[in-house]
Design brief:
The protein has about 525 residues and is of the alpha/beta class. The protein folds into two domains: about 110 residues, no CATH class; about 325 residues, Glycosidases (TIM Barrel, Alpha-Beta Barrel), CATH 3.20.20. The protein is built from 15 helices and 20 strands. The protein has an eight-stranded parallel sheet. It is globular. The N terminus is likely disordered.
C-alpha cells in the first residue's frame, strides 16, 4: 500500500506495515459511526482535553499574533491562513490579543479591534480550528514592547535599559520592573481604578463576548507574568550558584564582576551555557531561584489569577482558563501556581496549565546549539507541575526557530518528541509568512498524530528516522465516536481503498487538500489498542 504525496513535494510515503492490536479486523456494524466527526467544542476532564464526543483531544496548535500598533494588532493574513493551518494539521491556535488594542483609554473598549478578532475567530471556525485567546505582553507595556497601554504604565520616571537580547530588559530595565510592581500592587490609574481591576474588567468584557462561541475554548490570562523589581535578587543568586559550581568543577574562582561580564556578553554567555548542558549542572543553578519564584507566584500571581477568574466566572462558567507559570519558570524552575476557586470555594475544574518551555539559547544565534538534556529537564519539570495540579498541560509557547535553516531541525525534532512523549497540547511560537518553505516546519512540525482519540490516549510518537507512527489508547466501552488520526498526505484511488480495507477504517480527505483523516471505528468492549504505521520516503 502507498500514500502518495500529490503536492510538488518530492516525498512519496509508502505504507509498509500496519498493525492494530485488538480486533480491528472484525467488521463493524452498519450503524457504527465511521465518518470523520469533527468536534464542535473542547472542555477539560481532569488532566485531559476532551471534545464534545468525549474523545481525548490533542491540541496541536500555533501562535498567531501581531504586535504592531500601526497594523491594529491584527495579522494581515486573510481566511486562507486558516485553511493552510488546517491542511498542515493544526487544530488550534493561540491567538494573541493586546491590552493596548482592547482598552486604549481607561474603561473604553475598542470595538473595531474586537470585530477584527471576531473575524479571525470565524475564519478559524470555518476550518475546524479552535482558538485560545492569549492576553499577550512582552516587557509589560507598549512603551517598551507590547502589552499594557500607556495610561496603565506607571513607570515613575525610571530609566529603561535594553540588553544584548530583548528579554534582558526584564532584568535591566527599572522602568519595566517598576511598571510591573505597580501592576501587582493594583495601583490606581488616572480614573482612580486599580490597574488589576481594569485588567479583570477587560477580561470580563471579552468573556461576555465569547461565552457562547464554542470555537473560543480558552482564555490565557497573561503571557509570561514577570515579578518586577523582585527580579533584582535573581541574577546575583544565579551568578553565585554558577560561580560555586565552576569553582567546584575547575578550581577557578570567579569574582562577581567577572561573572557579570560573562553573562552580559552574548558570546561569553553562550560559552558559559555549555557548562550547563547537563541536567545536573543546570538544576544546580535554577533551583536556587525556587524560593524567590515561589514567593512571587504565591503572593502576587495567584491572587491576580483569582481576581481575573472571579471576573470571568461572573459571566462565563464554561470556558477553560489557561494559567501560565511565571516568566522565569520557562527555564525549568518549579512552579507553585495553584487552582483558582469558584465563588463557593470549590476548585475550578475548567483549568489548564499553560507553561512555556524554552532552552536558554532561544533568541540567540546559538539556537541550533540547544542542549537536548537541558530541554528534556525543562519539559520534565513542566510535567511535574501538571501532575501536581492534575490539569492538562498545554505548552503555549515553544520553538521560536524563525528563519533558521536545516541546522535547527534536530532541535525541533527533539522538542516535538518531548511534546509527544508527555502528551502535551502545544502551540508553536510562532506563525510567519512562508514558514512552510523551511526545513524545521516540514521535518518536525507537520506530522501525523492522533488528534481525537476514543477513550484515553496513553502514548503516541512519530519517529522521523523510522517513519513510524505509534499510538496506544484505551477505548471507552459506551462511546461510539471514532478515533481520528491526522495524516499530512493522502493517496488517491486504489491506494486509498486498499488502506481502508486493511484497517477496516475510513480515510476522509480534507476538502481541497492532500491531507486527511484516518478514521478508526470503536470496538465493542472498551479495548486497549495499539496502532503502528510505518511510512518511508
Amino acid at each position: 500500500m502507498n500514500i502518495n504525496i500529490t503536492k510538488r513535494s518530492a516525498f512519496i510515503y509508502y505504507l509498509l506495515s500496519v498493525i492494530i492490536f485488538g480486533t480491528i479486523f472484525i467488521g463493524c456494524k452498519k450503524d457504527d459511526p465511521i465518518e470523520a466527526n469533527m468536534p464542535k467544542a473542547i472542555t477539560v476532564s481532569e488532566n485531559r482535553f476532551v471534545d464534545n464526543y468525549g474523545r481525548h483531544a490533542v491540541l496541536n496548535g500555533i501562535n498567531i499574533i501581531s504586535k504592531s500598533k500601526d497594523k491594529g494588532y491584527l495579522v494581515s493574513e486573510d481566511s486562507t491562513l486558516y485553511s493552510k493551518l488546517r491542511d498542515w494539521g493544526f487544530n488550534s491556535v493561540r491567538f494573541g490579543i493586546i491590552w493596548d488594542g482592547i482598552e486604549p483609554e481607561p474603561g473604553i473598549y475598542n470595538e473595531e479591534y474586537l470585530k477584527g478578532i471576531d473575524q479571525h475567530i470565524q475564519w478559524a471556525a470555518n476550518n475546524d480550528i479552535f482558538v485560545v485567546l492569549d492576553m499577550h505582553q512582552d516587557l509589560y507595556s507598549v512603551l517598551y514592547s507590547d502589552g499594557a497601554p500607556r495610561w496603565a504604565t506607571l513607570h515613575e520616571g525610571m530609566p529603561h535599559k535594553m540588553g544584548a537580547i530583548w528579554s534582558d530588559a526584564y532584568m535591566l530595565s527599572q522602568a519595566v520592573q517598576t511598571s510591573f510592581d505597580n501592576f501587582w500592587a493594583n495601583k490606581p490609574a488616572s480614573d482612580g481604578i486599580g490597574l488589576q481591576d481594569h485588567y479583570a474588567q477587560m477580561w470580563q468584557h471579552i468573556a461576555k463576548r465569547y461565552v457562547n462561541n464554542p470555537t473560543v475554548i480558552g482564555y490565557d490570562l497573561m503571557n509570561e507574568p514577570f515579578s518586577g523589581s523582585a527580579s533584582q535578587r535573581y541574577m546575583p543568586a544565579m551568578l553565585a550558584a554558577y560561580g560555586k559550581m565552576m569553582h567546584e568543577t575547575t578550581g577557578k574562582e570567579l569574582s562577581r564582576r567577572e561573572l557579570e561580564l560573562i553573562w552580559s556578553d552574548v558570546e561569553d554567555r553562550a560559552k558559559a551555557l555549555k557548562n550547563l548542558s547537563s541536567a545536573e549542572n543546570f538544576a544546580t543553578i535554577v533551583d536556587v531561584l525556587f524560593p524567590l519564584n515561589r514567593d512571587f507566584e504565591a503572593h502576587k500571581l495567584q491572587p491576580f489569577y483569582q481576581k481575573v477568574s472571579d471576573a470571568i466566572r461572573e459571566v462565563d462558567k464554561s470556558t477553560i482558563l489557561f494559567l501560565e507559570h511565571s516568566y522565569l519558570s520557562n527555564m525549568g524552575i518549579r512552579s507553585s501556581i495553584a487552582r483558582t476557586t469558584l465563588f463557593d470555594g470549590t476548585p475550578d475544574s475548567l483549568l489548564a496549565y499553560a507553561p512555556h518551555g524554552y532552552d536558554l539559547v532561544t533568541d540567540t544565534e546559538s539556537a541550533s546549539e540547544a542542549s537536548s538534556e537541558r530541554l528534556s529537564f525543562i519539559y520534565n519539570r513542566l510535567q511535574e507541575t501538571g501532575n501536581r495540579l492534575n490539569m492538562p498541560v498545554w505548552l503555549g509557547e515553544w520553538g521560536a526557530f524563525y528563519r533558521h535553516g536545516q541546522e535547527i531541525v534536530p532541535v525541533a525534532q527533539h522538542a516535538i518528541t518531548e511534546i509527544e512523549n508527555n502528551l502535551y497540547g502545544n502551540a508553536y511560537w510562532s506563525y510567519e509568512s512562508k514558514m512552510d518553505k523551511l526545513a524545521y516546519f516540514n521535518q518536525a512540525l507537520v506530522r501525523p498524530y492522533p488528534a481525537f482519540t476514543n477513550g484515553v490516549l496513553l502514548e503516541y510518537n512519530y519517529n522521523r528516522e523510522t517513519s513510524v507512527l505509534t499510538m496506544v489508547w484505551q477505548e471507552e466501552d459506551n462511546n461510539l465516536a471514532p478515533t481520528q488520526v491526522f495524516v499530512p498526505y493522502l493517496a488517491k484511488g486504489d491506494a486509498m481503498k486498499k488502506i481502508e480495507k486493511r484497517l477496516n477504517a475510513t480515510i476522509k480527505r480534507i476538502a481541497n487538500s492532500n491531507a486527511g483523516w484516518l478514521v478508526i471505528p470503536q470496538l465493542e468492549g472498551g479495548q486497549k489498542r495499539r496502532l503502528v504505521v510505518r511510512m518511508t520516503k
